[in-house]
Specification:
By secondary structure, the protein is α+β, with helices and mostly antiparallel strands. About 45% of the residues lie in helices and about 15% in strands. The chain has 2 domains: about 30 residues; about 80 residues, no CATH class.
Length: about 130
């Protein structure tokens, strides 16, 4: 994540501040390598407790012992999830199965740049 502040007073007004901010953003987008979708999905988030991105533990009223789940969101907005019962496989077995399922789900991810904004796509060479 990159950021820089452009103050109206220091830049000579709001229009000039915006123009400088847009120029800085465009320069950053051409210089900084965009993550691929695969790299994005492999990033471990700060709230991840399992140690493996996309693998989570859930406990519900219907399954008090809980279950491990491997989940992935695709760029299209569609998601896939595979769940493994702790009651059926044991905690370690359910964890191993969820990690393996997450690896299989990652194999379905297209290895293209992770870009949303049209200008970012344009500056990276993708339209």
């Amino acid at each position: 994540m990159y950021s820089k502040t452009f103050y109206d007073l220091a830049c000579g007004g709001s229009k000039e501040a915006k123009a400088q901010a847009v120029a800085w953003r465009d320069e950053q987008l051409t210089e900084v390598k965009a993550l691929t979708l695969l790299e994005f999905h492999q990033q471990r988030r700060s709230n991840n407790l399992s140690g493996v991105p996309g693998v989570h533990f859930h406990k519900t009223a219907r399954q008090p012992p809980g279950f491990r789940q491997a989940k992935i969101w695709f760029h299209s907005g569609k998601s896939l999830a595979k769940s493994f019962s702790v009651l059926k496989f044991g905690d370690e077995g359910a964890y191993r199965l969820a990690v393996d399922a997450r690896t299989d789900l990652l194999a379905q991810v297209e290895n293209q740049p992770f870009l949303h904004h049209p200008i970012a796509k344009q500056l990276s060479g993708r339209t």
